[in-house]
UniProtKB/TrEMBL annotation:
PPIase FKBP-type domain residues: 1097-1178
Cofactors (names): pyridoxal 5'-phosphate
Reaction catalysis annotation: [protein]-peptidylproline (omega=180) = [protein]-peptidylproline (omega=0)
Documented EC number(s): 5.2.1.8
Name of the molecule in the record: peptidylprolyl isomerase
Molecular-function GO terms, alphabetical: 2-oxoglutarate-dependent dioxygenase activity; diaminobutyrate acetyltransferase activity; diaminobutyrate-pyruvate transaminase activity; DNA binding; ectoine synthase activity; peptidyl-prolyl cis-trans isomerase activity; pyridoxal phosphate binding
Organism for this UniProt entry: Cladocopium goreaui
Amino acid sequence: MTPLAGGVAQPHETDHDNAELRNLFRECKAETQERPTEDVEYGQASDDTDRHCQQYFFNPLKNSANLFHDAEPAVCNGLVPADNQSTATHASALSVSFRAAELSDAAAIWELVVESKVLDPNSRYCYLLLCRDFSDTCVVACRGSEVVGFVTAYRPPEQPEVVFVWQIGIAKSARRQGLAKRLLHSLVSVPACKEVRFLQATVTPSNEASRGLFESFAEDLDVPCRIRQGFTAEMFDPGEPTNMMEVFAELESEVRSYCRSFPTVFTKAQGHQMWDERGNEYIDFFAGAGSLNYGHNNPKLKEPLLKYIESDGVTHSLDMATTAKREFLQTFNRLVLGPRNMDYKVMFPGPTGTNAVEAALKVARMVTGRPNVMAFTNAFHGMTLGSLALTGNGSKRDAAGVTLTDVTRMPYHGYMGSELDTIDLLEQHLKNTSSGVDLPAALILETVQAEGGVNVSTNPWLRRLQELLKRYEILLIVDDIQVGCGRTGPFFSFESAGLEPDIICLSKSLSGYGVPFAVTLLRPELDVLEPGKHNGTFRGHNLAFVTATAALKNYWAKGELSDDVKRRGQIVRNSLRETAENYGGNVRGRGLIQGLEFRDKDAASEVSREAFERGLIIETSGPQDEVLKVLPPLTISDNALQHGLEIIAESVEAALGAVAEGTDREVGAENWKSRRLLLRSDRMGFSLHDTTIHAGTTTEMHYQNHLEAVYCIEGKGTVTLVDSGEVFEIEAGTVYALDLNDRHILKAEETMRMVCVFNPPLVGPESHDEKGPALSAEDVTAYERNGFHHSQTLFSQDEAEGFLAEAKELAAEVTGPKPGVVIEPGSNAVRSLFRLHRTSDTFRAVAQDPRLVNIARQLLGSEVYVYQSRINFKPAFDGKEFFWHSDFETWHIEDGMPRMRAVSVSISLTDSNEFNGPLMVVPGSHKHYVRCVGATPENHFEKSLKKQEYGVPSQEAMRELVDRGGIVAPKGPPGSGLFFECNLMHGSSGNLSPYPRTNLFIVYNSVENGVHDPYGGTPARPEFLSERDVTPEVFQVVKESQADVLQNKIPVENPMGQALLGKTPGDKVLLSGPEGDIEFSVLEVNQEHLMAQAKNGSTVTVNYTGRLEDGSVFDETQNKEPLRFVLGKDRLIKGFEQAVVGMSPGDSKTVKLPPEDAYGQKRDEMMVSVDRGKIPQDVQPQVGQRVELKQQDGSPIGATVTEVTDSTIVVDANHPLAGHSLTFDISMVEVS
C-alpha cells in the first residue's frame, strides 16, 4: 500500500535547532512492531475492519516537553505560552486538565468506550490493568471531576524508544474540539516518554477519522509519518468475531454502504424504533429509504402475514394466479384507482423499483418506436443499466462499465435558478429541429427528487410539462417509487397537480412491510407487451400481496393518514426552518419528505453522524450529500417525531458549532475578516473574536441574538446607530457595547482591528445581520420603484393546501349573509370571509408568521398590526371581476387612516395564472394620488364588496397611469405572494376558466398610523373591515425558554410591554412567545410596573415610568393633572421652535403647519400661547417631577424634569428616542 504523506509535530521544547532536529528525524527509520495490537479508535467506527491494518510510525519524540513535573497534573485552560508554538492550534480548545490515569478511572474509561459505539470494548479487567500497571503512559482529560477523554498506551519492553497507542476515547460533549490531539501531545510529554523517539499506532485503512487524527498530529510536530502494512486477518484465528461489525468487513463486499453510515448490528425493530445488539435504541428517520411508510413490523400488517404463512399460503408463484394476488388487485382498484378515476393496467415487472422503471422504458420505446428518453438533472431511477442511464448522479453512473445511451438530460425545475423557466428551455429543444435532441419516446419524472436532494417541483410547472408532452406526443412516466404511497400526503405525489401520467412506477412502501414489491401502471392502450416479453422469477411475491392489501385496507380506506402526513409535515418543516435560520440553510420538501440543505456541503454528513451518536437514524441526499433528508414513517407519533426533531437540532448545533468553531478557521467577506479565539466550547459563556474591518469599507451589523462589546486595538472609523442617527468616533483604545436592538453601521476610515466579545457565544456561520432583512436592498429598491414585490415561494405548496382546506371549511360553515361574510351576487356562494386573524387559529398564525410580518415591518419602518384579513374565493367559470382601485383612496380614507403607511399582501392558495382572473397591478402608480369619481354613498361597503361601482378612478386617469407604467399580472403556484403599496392601482378580471382562484388577503398597518374618525364625517366602517386596535400581532419576547422569559422584567418599549400597557387587573392577554401562545392574566398595576401571570404560575413584570393603567402620567409631587408641554410636528421640539420664532411674552398667534398628507388634508391648526401667567403657581415644575409631553396628534411622551431656572425647564424624554434633552422657555409653556 502506498504510504500517505504526513508528519509528526515538532517537540514542545528542544535543545536543538528546529532545522537540525527535523533533519535528524528524517534520518531515523522505523522498526516493525510485531506485537498484536488493538486498532486505534477515535471519531469514526473501525468496525469496517479492512483485511489489513496499517501501522503508523511517528519519528522521534525525543526531548519533548515534560508537562508532568513531579507527577503533578498539568492544566490547559486554552492559554498558550508564547514559546510553545506546537500547541498554538489548541489556543481556543476545550478547557480541561490532563493527568496520569488512576485505578479509580478504569470505570469511567470503560463507560467512554461503551458510549462511543465505535470502540471495541476490552474486558473490564483490561482497563483496571491499564490504569494500574500502565498508568505512566495512560492519560485522562478531566473537566472538573468528570473524565471526558483518555488515551491508553504502553512501551513495548523490547523497544523502549517506542510508545504504542492502544485506544483514544472522547466523551460526546467534548468531541470535535481538538481534545484527541491534545491527549496525544500530553502523552508524549509525560516523564515515561522522555526517552521515546517513536510513536506507533494501528489504524484500519478505511478508518479515515483516525487516520486524519494521526496525520494532523504528525503535521503539528513537523516530522515524517510512515505507514506500512501491520497485521493481516490470517494472523488471527477468525473464530467467533469479537468485533460486532468484523464479520461484515471480512465476508461482505466492499460495495456495502448504509452499514458504514450506521455502524452497528441491529436486532429488533418496531414502529419508528430500532434496537442494536448492545441494547441501544434508535428513532428511525430513514424508514428503509422510504420502504417502511407504515413503520417496522406494523401489527396491522404483520398479523395477516403470519396468518397467511401459518395457513401454508402460496409464497412463490411466478406470475400465476393466486388468491393473494387477486385480493390485492381488487383492493388496489377499489381503494386507489377507482376513487381517483384512474384507468390503468397493473404490470408486475419484478420485485424492485428499478424493475418497474426498466419495464416502463421497454413499453414506451415499443409503443412509440423511438429509443430516446428524456430524464432530468439530479434524477435517480435505479441501478440497473436502463435505469442508471436515466440517473444523474455521477458516482452511480461511473460504476456502469459501459456507455449509458439513449437518454437526453434536461434541467429540473429550479435547476437553472428561479429566473429561468426550464419548461421554456425544454420546449425550445423540442421545437427547434436543429437542437440536436431526438424526439423522445417518453420523459420520466420524479415530482420530488428524493435522492437528488429533495428537490420539489411546483404544480404549475408540472401541468405545463404535461401539456407540452401531450402536444409533442411524448409519454409521461412518473417515478413515484420513493415519494408515492402517501409520502407527500396523497397516495400519489402528483395528485394535487392533476397529472394524468401514461405510466406510473411504484415500489418501496407498496408492500408496506419492507417486503420487495413493485408494479408498473399502464394506460390500457399501452399494454402492448405480449406474454413472456417481460418475464421474471419473482414477479409474483405473494407475501407482499398480503401486506400490501392490509396496508391499503387499514390506511387508505379513509383520508386520515393523508391529513396526518400534511400536518406532521408542517411540524417537521417548522422545526427545520428554525434550525436553518439559526445556522444558515434551506428547507424544502412536501409532506413527510423534507430536506435541510446546508451552506457547508460537508455539514449534512456530519449532522447525520452526530444524530446517530444520539440515537437517530437519518441519511443524506443530493449530488454532494449536502442535504439532510427527513424520512420518518408516516405513522410516527407526534411525540416521537418531536423527539427526533430535537435530536436533529442538537446534532446540527454540535456539528455546525464545531465546524464554525475550528481554531484555525477564519471567516469574513470582502470588507472584513474575523478569527475566532475563544468559543462556546470553552464554556466561558461568551466568544472572543479578532476582527479586522478593511479601510474605506462600510458594514451594516445587527446581532439580534447577542450582546456585543468591542475594543478597538488600532485604526480609525465611526459607528452610526441606524435608529437614532447618532454617530460615534472610533479609534485605538475606544471601547463600546451594543445591545440586542442596536442596528449599526461601522465605517472604517483606516483599517481597524478590534477585539469583539459576544454574549452568548457566537456560533455557526457568521452573519453581520443575524436576522437579516426580510427583503434584499435590491428588492426594496424595486418595491419603491414599482410599488409591489412578488415571491414565488412565500409559503410551501403543502402550507397553501392546508390554508385552502381551512378556508373551505370556514366557508362551508356559512349559512347566510352576516357581518364579515360576502356572498357572490346572484348566488349563495361565499365570495369573501373577513377578520380571519380573529376567528381562525390557522389564519391568526399566518398573520403572525415572520415571513409576512418581517417584510411588512421592513417596508413600513415600524412595528405593524393586522388592519384587515380576508379570504377571497373566485370560482371557476363565473368568478366576478373587481375594478381598478387604490386601497388607500377607496377604503382606508373612509376608515380615517391618516397616512399611506399600510401594505397589503395577497397569498395564492390555488394556482394564479393568466386565465383565472389574477390580480393585476400598475407599476409605479403608487406615486400618483388619484381621487375617486363621485360621492361615496352611505354604507357603501355593503355593496362595494360585491361589486365595485363607486370609489374607483376615472377611465382617463387609469389610461394615463397604464400608459406610464403598464400592467403586470404576477402569476405563481399555491404559496406565492404579492406585497403591494396601499396606494397602488390594482384590480382583477372575471374568471372564465375552469380553474378556481382563492387567495388570502392581509393588510398590515403601521402602529404609528392608527386610524382616527373618518375625515369626511361619515360613520366608521365595521371593525371587520378596519381593525382599530393597533396592538402588534406578533410579540417575539426573547428566544430563550419560557421559564427564562417569565423571570425577566420587560421594558415598556418592548412589544410585550406595549401589549400589556393600559391593562387592568383581571384582563386576559394572549401573547406569542418562542414556544407558542402564552395567556397572561394581569395581577397588579401601580405607578412603576405592571405584573401579569401565565397559566403555569410564572410571572412577568413590565417596567414603566409614570404611566398609570389609563395611560396618563403619575405626578409624584402633586395629586393633580400633570404639566403638559406641546411639541411640534417633528415629534421633538424642533417644529415648535420654528413655529414661535420671533414671539415675545404676551404674544399669541395661530400657526398653520404645511400640508403633510398625500391626499391633501391639512394638519390641525395649533394655537401657541406665550404667557407665563398661564402656569398656575401650585403646579410649578420641580426637578424629578414626572411630566408628559403632548404631541400635536395628541399622543403622549413621558418625560422627567431635570432642571428648572427662572426662564427655562429642561426635561429628558422617556421615549423610544430616549436620551434627547428638551429645553423649554417657561414663557412658552401652557397647561393643556
